Amino acid sequence: MSEGFKRGIQEFTKTSLGDLAFVQRILGTTLSEGSQVQGSLVRKSDQGTFEGYPVRDIELRSGLGGEGPHVLLFTITPPGVPFATKQWPEAMPSPPDPGANDSKGYWKVPGDGVSVVFGMNAEESHIVQVAINNR
Questions:
Q1: DSSP letter (8 states) at residue 101
Q2: Is 85 helix (H, G, I), strand (E, B) or coil?
Q3: What is the pTM of this model?
Q4: Is the pLDDT of residue 1 over 70?
Q5: Cβ-contact 31, 23 below 8 angstroms
Q6: Nearest one of 44, 21, 40 to 31, comparing CA atoms
Q7: CA 125, CA 47: separation in Å to the nearest integer?
């Protein structure tokens, strides 16, 4: 995994996801004004760039008015970011569910008021999705 990717994830965990200008700058994109979806404000963008990796399907969710917890989701264009457990020693694995079709494993990185989840490819060698929950 590139050091830049890890640094970028760490920046997200130290800064409020409610800082829209920060999120847009780090992801090299402009998010939509937002729409109400089931009591949440959802802002989207089709594409951007995160630490040199092309990303797509970017979504930032928050409470109405931008209040409450924020969740940032994005997909990394294949092949994704190489994953090495030694770079994330605190990460906990969750294997694919053998009873669910197309289930993929993920790794959760706990933090103080923030959680990061890395969705993996089928081989579990590359990060292909990122979810950051900033409470």
A1: T
A2: helix
A3: 0.91
A4: no
A5: yes
A6: 44
A7: 23
